[in-house]
Write a structure and sequence with these properties.
The protein has 9 helices and 6 strands. With about 260 residues, it is an alpha/beta fold. Helix 1 links the parallel strand 1 and strand 2. Helix 2 crosses helix 3 and helix 4 crosses helix 6.
Amino acid sequence: MKSKYPIILCHGIMLKEGKIFNGFGHIKEVLQSAGFSVYTSNCDGMGTIENNAEQLKNRIECILQETGAEKVNIIGHSKGGLDAKYLIDNLNMASKVASLTCICTPHKGSQVATTVLKMPKFLLYFCAFWVNLFYKILKDKNPDTVAVLKQLASNEDAEVELKTKNHGVYCQSYSATMDGAKADFVMSIPYLISHHYEKDFSDGMVAKNSTVFGEYKGDALPESVSHNEIVCYLTRKKKKEKVSAFYIALCEDLVKRGF
């Protein structure tokens, strides 16, 4: 194992493990090929923060038992970072986590979620019913679309840093920036919503100022990358190679830090 502790990839909202909506795409295989011990979180795609944090706790405990390691390194994309923060703060898991890296995580929420919640209630709950049903088919245990949207709604007063003092977890964060709505067709409408309301650089889902947490490292890549492209979901081949190189460099840095 190249790193001292295993690495666990925690996907965000809507993504899961498997062929459909595959969280982190081929990143797991890329890192394993580079010599790292890598696992995925296997959390619900549309579960609440509390729900997914419990699932993440169970997953980490299984990984620690399997590997004999004392801790894990968590890399959380989008809501996956919030799930991990809740795990550390509220589920007595700080001693089991060496580092937490948040990538495009909405620590202060997202205007995209806020905008969706402004839909007429009957339409919101109608759509949520079918989304929940779809994710149950995809093996989610407790999908709750409306609750998740409320948790991800924009909140400038949100407490960003970990509540637990002296938690001993190394925390860092990265953002990503789209060069405009045309940069990624999939994220074009969310980008326009985010850019309109937040007046800030955005990856299409999360404004840059919302991603700042722990040691903020800036954009993951110096070029246009969207919220989904940063986890190699529907990403063009050339950009996939650059995204893969980013994750390898990130994990190499964790090794240098003794994690």
